[in-house]
TrEMBL record, chain A:
Name of the protein described by the UniProt record: Transporter
Topology term for the membrane: Multi-pass membrane protein
GO molecular function: metal ion binding; symporter activity
A Gene Ontology term for the protein's cellular component: plasma membrane
Gene that encodes it: SLC6A18
One GO BP: sodium ion transmembrane transport
Taxonomic superkingdom: Eukaryota
Residues holding Na(+): 30, 32-33, 37, 261, 293, 410, 414
Membrane-crossing segments per the record: 24-41, 47-71, 92-124, 176-195, 207-226, 254-275, 287-308, 398-419, 440-465, 471-494, 515-535, 564-589
Compartments reported by the entry: Membrane
PANTHER family: INACTIVE SODIUM-DEPENDENT NEUTRAL AMINO ACID TRANSPORTER B(0)AT3 (PTHR11616:SF109), SODIUM/CHLORIDE DEPENDENT TRANSPORTER (PTHR11616)
Family: Belongs to the sodium:neurotransmitter symporter (SNF) (TC 2.A.22) family.
Alphabetized UniProt keyword annotations: Glycoprotein, Membrane, Metal-binding, Sodium, Symport, Transmembrane, Transmembrane helix, Transport
From TrEMBL, chain B:
Membrane topology: Single-pass type I membrane protein
Annotated transmembrane regions: 185-209
InterPro entries hit by this protein: Collectrin, Collectrin_dom
Protein's cellular compartments: Cell membrane
Main location: membrane
UniProt entry tagged with the keyword Phosphoprotein: yes
PROSITE patterns membership: COLLECTRIN_LIKE
Taxonomic placement: Eukaryota, Metazoa, Chordata, Craniata, Vertebrata
Any Gene Ontology biological process: positive regulation of amino acid transport
Gene: LOC109898004
Species for this entry: Oncorhynchus kisutch
Keyword NAD applies: no
The protein, known as: Collectrin, amino acid transport regulator
Chain ranges of the Collectrin-like domain: 62-256
GO CC terms, sorted: extracellular exosome; plasma membrane
Keywords: Cell membrane, Glycoprotein, Membrane, Phosphoprotein, Signal, Transmembrane, Transmembrane helix
C-alpha cells in the first residue's frame, strides 16, 4: 500500500481542497445530471413502453452504473491525481487510458458548450413579446409570410433558419453565423469565470447550477398538471408495455443511457474526487450520486410529459377546430353549434346526408394518439417541441425563460466536469510552465476550445455536432470504461483495491461490489460495447438534412455521409482510443530498452521504477 | 256634376280617360272610380317595384357583390350578442360610412346597401348601388378598396376581428411587424456579457492582489521561513519549497 506521504510529494504545492462536502457532492451530482436526463431519458421511456423501461434501466444502474461510479471516485480519492496520473500509477502500460479520457473530454467539451450556446441564444430571445418563434416573419415586400416558414412551422423556421441558418447538406459549409459566435463566446466566458479559481469558484457556482433545475422542474410540474391534456400525456408515458422487454435493443439502450448519464470515463469524476481528503466515505458518495441521477431522470420526465400531453391536446383541438370551421362554412350551420364534444355526431349525420360535399372538404383526421406519438429527443425536444408547447401556455415568456435557464444550468454543471477532465490531467502531466498562473492557463484552454468550436457555428455546424455526438460521445467511452474496470480489477488487483477502500472508508467492500467489479460489470460492458458497435455498423451512415428545396419538405431529407466526412467519423471514434495501445507499446519499448542499459543495476522490471533514484545511484 | 279635369302632369292613360261633357251621369261616375283604382294600382306597383328591382340586383354570386361571414360566438364567447335586424341595419350603415369615406362624398345612405340571402351561419351577400342611379351597382374593385380602407372601423363597430368578420375575397392586409431598432436579444446579451466580464476582471484582480500580499508577507517573515527550511532539512524530510534560503543567509549559523 503506498505511503500516505508519497502522494503529496508528487505536487510542488498543496492540492486544492473542497470547501465542504456539500460542494463536492453538488459538483458530482451536477456533472452527472445533465441535458440527457431531461431530453433523452423521457424519450426512451416513451418509445420503450413507459413504466416497463424502468426495469432494465434500474438493473443497469445497480450492476453497471454504481460499480463504475464507485470505482472512479475511489481511485481518484486514493491516488489524488487526475485521470492521466491515476492510470499511470495503477499501471504505466495503461497510462493510455488517461490520455484517451482527456482527449475524449476535450472533444466533448467542444460540442457540449455549443449546445449551451444555443440554449443561451434561445434564452436571450425569450425576453420578447411576442416570442419570435410564435409567428412567421413577413417576406420582403410584405405581401405574405416567408414561404419556408409557411410550409413548415414557425418553431421549425426559427430553429433551422433564424438560429442555425442551416445549409441543405454537409458539403455546403456556409459562413459563420455571428449571433451564434456571440452566444458561444458568452457560454465560454461563463465557463471561464466559474473556472477562474478552480474548484473554489466551481464550488460556489454549483450551489446554483445543481439545485436550480430541480426548482424549475417542480414549478413546471405544478403548472403542467393544471393544463388540459397533461393527464393524457402522463398516462401515455407511464403505461407499461411489458412486451417490449423482449426486445434486446431496450436493454442495450438502457445500459448505454445509464452509462452516458453518469458521465463515467470522462476523467472528471476522478479529478473531482482527487480533491477530497483520503478519509472520505466514497462508497456512500457513489451510491448517492448514482441514485440521485436516476431519480432526477424519472422526476424530470413527469413535467416533460405532462407538457407534451398538453401540446398534443392543443394540436388535437386545433385540428378539430379546423374541421369544424370547414363544416360550419360549407353547410352554413350556426356559429359554434358544432363543438369539439359533438363533432362526431355532426360529422356522422352530415356525412350520411351529403357524403360528396363532405369528402370534397378534405377534412383532416384528428387523432390524439398520433399527436402523442410525435415524440422527439435531444435538441428537437428542447428547441422545437417544447418551445411550441410554451407558446400555448399563458405567460409564455416566463415559462420560456425558466425552461432555458434550467437547461443552461444543467449544461453548465456538466461542462464543469468535462473541462475538469481536460485541465487536471494537463496539470498533472506538468505541461504547465511554472511561470504561468493557473488563471492564464485556464484562459488559454478556454480560448483554444472556443476557437475550435467555431466550426459548429458554420451553416453546416449542426450536422457536425451530430457527428461528434454520435461518434465521439459513444464508443470511445465504452472502450475506456472497459479498460478502466479491467485495469483496477485485474491489473491493480481487487485485493489491493479492497485494502485501499478499507483505508478510505473504514470497511472492506462487500461481496456485491467485488462480484460486480470482477465479473458482472466487465461482462456487461463488453456485451454492451459489442452490441453497440454491431448496431452502429448496421445502420447506414446517413443524416437528416433540412432542405427547403426538397420535394417532401418539410420532412427532412435523408442523405448519406460524403466519404471524407465518414473518414472523419472513423477518425473521431478511433483516435482517442488508439492512445491506449500506443502508450502501452511505448512503455513496453521504453521498459525493454531500460532493462538492456541498466541491467546490471536493475534486475527487477518494477513498473514503479523511479528514474531519479536510478540516476542518483549512478552518481 | 263634378268636372272631370285631368291634371296636366297625369300619365297619358289617365288623360285619355276624359269623358266628353255630354256623357250620361253613370258613365261619368264609372270613369271616376276607374281612375281612382288605376292611380292606386300604379302607386302600389311603383312602391313594390322598387325593392323588387333592387332585389334582382343583389343575388348570391352576383358579379359585383361580396359575401360576408360573421362568427360572433367564436369571437366573443359568453358576451356574444344576437344577430338581428338592428345589427343588420348597423352593418348597412357602416358600409355606407365606408363608401362615404372612400369616395369622400356624403351622398351614400343606408338604402344604398342591399343585403340578401342571409343564413343562420350568419352569412349574407351584399351589393352597393349608386346613389345617383339606383339601377347601377358600384364595381367590385371599388367596394373592395372602400372596405380595406375602413376595415378596422368596420371590425370595431361589431367588436370582431379580421378573422371573425370575413369579407370573402377581400384579404386582410398583414399587420406590420414591430421592428425595434435594437433587437431585444442583443440587450439581454449585452447585460449578461457585461456582468460576466466584470466578474472575471474582479476575480482576476482580487487573486492578483492576494498573490502580491502573500509574496510581501513571505518576504517579511522570511526569517521564519528559513528556520522552517533548516529544520526540514535536518529532519530528513525533503520539502521542495520555492524559496531555499539556506544558501542566502548563512550568518545565523556561522555566528555559532
Amino acid at each position: 500500500m503506498p505511503e500516505e506521504g508519497m502522494e503529496d510529494n508528487k505536487e510542488g504545492e498543496e492540492r486544492p481542497k473542497w470547501n465542504n462536502k456539500a460542494e463536492y457532492l453538488l459538483t458530482c451530482i451536477g456533472f452527472a445530471v445533465g441535458l440527457g436526463n431531461v431530453w433523452r431519458f423521457p424519450y426512451l421511456c416513451q418509445i420503450y413502453g413507459g413504466g416497463a423501461f424502468l426495469i432494465p434501466y434500474l438493473i443497469a444502474l445497480v450492476f453497471q452504473g454504481l460499480p463504475l461510479l464507485y470505482l472512479e471516485l475511489a481511485i481518484g480519492q486514493r491516488l489524488r491525481m487526475g485521470s492521466i496520473g491515476v492510470w499511470n500509477s495503477i499501471s504505466p502500460y495503461l497510462g493510455g487510458v488517461g490520455v484517451a479520457s482527456m482527449l475524449v473530454s476535450f472533444c466533448v467539451s467542444l460540442f457540449y458548450n455549443t449546445i449551451v450556446a444555443w440554449v443561451l441564444w434561445y434564452l436571450f430571445n425569450s425576453f420578447q413579446e411576442p416570442l419570435p418563434w410564435s409567428q412567421c416573419p413577413l417576406n420582403h415586400n410584405n405581401t405574405g409570410y416567408v414561404e419556408e416558414c409557411v410550409e413548415s412551422t414557425p418553431v421549425n423556421y426559427f430553429w433551422y433558419r433564424q438560429t442555425l441558418n442551416i445549409t441543405p447538406n454537409m458539403e455546403t459549409s456556409g459562413s459563420l453565423q455571428w449571433w451564434l459566435v456571440v452566444s458561444l463566446a458568452t457560454a465560454w466566458s461563463i465557463v471561464y469565470i466559474c473556472f477562474v479559481r478552480g474548484i473554489k469558484t466551481i464550488g460556489k457556482a454549483v450551489y446554483f447550477t445543481a439545485t436550480f433545475p430541480y426548482l424549475v422542474l417542480t414549478i413546471f410540474l405544478v403548472r403542467a398538471l393544471t393544463l388540459p391534456g397533461s393527464s393524457e400525456g402522463l398516462i401515455y408515458l407511464f403505461t407499461p408495455d411489458w412486451e417490449i422487454l423482449k426486445n434486446p435493443q431496450v436493454w442495450l439502450d438502457a445500459a448505454t443511457q445509464i452509462f452516458f448519464s453518469l458521465s463515467v470515463a470522462f476523467g472528471g469524476l476522478i479529478s473531482f474526487s482527487s480533491y477530497n481528503s483520503q478519509k472520505n466515505n466514497c462508497e456512500r458518495d457513489a451510491v448517492l450520486v448514482g441514485v440521485i441521477n436516476s431519480a432526477t431522470s424519472i422526476y424530470a420526465s413527469i413535467p416533460i410529459f405532462a407538457i407534451l400531453g398538453f401540446k398534443a391536446h392543443t394540436n388535437y383541438v386545433t385540428c378539430l377546430n379546423g374541421n369544424i370551421l370547414a363544416l360550419t362554412n360549407e353547410f352554413d350551420i350556426s356559429d359554434m353549434n358544432i363543438t369539439v364534444e359533438n363533432y362526431e355526431q355532426w360529422f356522422d349525420s352530415l356525412n350520411g346526408t351529403h357524403p360528396s360535399r363532405v369528402s370534397d372538404l378534405k377534412l383532416k383526421t384528428c387523432d390524439l394518439q398520433t399527436f402523442l406519438d410525435q415524440s422527439a429527443s435531444g435538441t428537437g425536444l428542447a428547441f422545437i417541441v417544447f418551445t411550441e408547447a410554451v407558446i400555448s401556455m399563458p405567460g409564455s415568456q416566463v415559462w420560456a425563460v425558466l425552461f432555458f435557464i434550467m437547461l443552461f444550468s444543467l449544461g453548465l454543471s456538466s461542462m464543469f466536469g468535462n473541462l475538469e477532465g481536460v485541465l487536471t490531467p494537463l496539470h498533472d502531466l506538468k505541461l504547465v510552465p511554472k511561470w504561468m498562473p493557473n488563471e492564464l492557463f485556464t484562459a488559454i484552454i478556454c480560448l483554444l476550445l472556443f476557437l475550435m468550436a467555431l466550426i459548429f457555428c458554420l451553416g453546416s455546424g449542426n450536422y457536425w455536432l451530430e457527428i461528434f455526438n454520435s461518434y465521439v460521445g459513444s464508443v470511445p467511452f465504452l472502450i475506456i470504461a472497459f479498460f478502466e474496470i479491467i485495469a483496477v480489477a485485474y491489473i491493480y488487483g481487487i485485493g489491493r483495491f479492497s485494502d485501499d477502500l478499507e483505508f478510505m472508508t473504514g470497511h472492506r467492500p462487500n461481496i456485491f461490489w467485488k462480484v460486480c467489479w470482477l465479473v458482472i460489470s466487465p461482462l456487461m460492458l463488453f456485451v454492451v460495447l459489442v452490441a453497440y458497435v454491431a448496431v452502429q455498423a448496421q445502420t447506414p451512415p446517413t443524416y437528416a438534412a433540412w432542405n427547403p428545396d426538397y420535394v417532401n419538405f418539410p420532412n427532412t431529407e435523408v442523405l448519406p455521409y460524403p466519404d471524407w466526412v465518414f473518414a472523419i467519423c472513423v477518425l473521431l471514434s478511433s483516435v482517442p482510443v488508439i492512445s491506449i495501445p500506443l502508450v502501452a507499446i511505448y512503455r513496453l519499448i521504453c521498459c525493454m530498452s531500460g532493462r538492456h542499459s541498466k541491467d546490471s543495476l536493475h534486475n527487477n522490471p518494477n513498473p514503479y521504477a523511479n528514474e531519479d533514484y536510478v540516476v542518483e545511484l549512478l552518481l | 256634376m263634378p268636372s272631370l279635369t285631368v291634371p296636366p302632369g297625369a300619365p297619358p292613360i289617365l288623360q285619355s280617360l276624359t269623358v266628353p261633357p255630354g256623357a250620361p251621369p253613370i258613365l261619368q261616375s264609372l270613369a271616376v272610380t276607374l281612375e281612382r283604382m288605376l292611380v292606386r294600382i300604379l302607386v302600389l306597383l311603383y312602391l313594390a317595384g322598387a325593392p323588387a328591382l333592387a332585389q334582382t340586383l343583389c343575388q348570391p354570386n352576383a358579379s359585383n357583390g361580396y359575401r360576408v361571414r360573421i362568427s360572433i360566438k367564436t369571437a366573443l364567447g359568453n358576451q356574444a350578442y344576437e344577430w338581428n335586424e338592428n345589427e343588420m341595419f348597423l352593418f348597412r350603415a357602416t358600409m355606407a360610412f365606408a363608401m362615404r369615406r372612400y369616395y369622400k362624398t356624403e351622398t351614400y345612405n343606408v338604402d344604398n346597401i342591399i343585403v340578401c340571402n342571409q343564413t343562420r351561419r350568419v352569412s349574407f351577400w351584399f351589393v352597393v348601388i349608386s346613389p345617383e342611379n339606383p339601377t347601377m351597382l358600384i364595381p367590385k374593385a371599388d367596394v373592395e378598396k372602400a372596405v380595406s380602407m375602413s376595415r378596422h372601423r368596420i371590425n370595431n363597430a361589431f367588436l370582431l376581428t379580421d378573422r371573425t368578420l370575413e369579407f370573402l375575397g377581400i384579404y386582410p392586409t398583414l399587420a406590420e411587424p414591430v421592428n425595434p431598432d435594437t433587437p431585444p436579444w442583443l440587450i439581454v446579451f449585452g447585460v449578461v456579457i457585461g456582468a460576466v466580464f466584470a466578474g472575471i476582471i474582479a476575480l482576476l484582480v482580487s487573486s492578483l492582489l492576494q498573490k502580491r500580499r502573500k509574496e510581501k508577507g513571505m518576504m517579511e517573515d522570511g526569517q521564519d521561513e528559513e528556520d522552517r527550511q533548516m529544520k526540514g532539512v535536518e529532519n530528513g524530510i525533503n520539502l521542495d519549497g520555492i524559496y531555499n534560503r539556506g544558501f542566502t543567509d548563512d550568518d545565523r549559523f556561522t555566528k555559532l
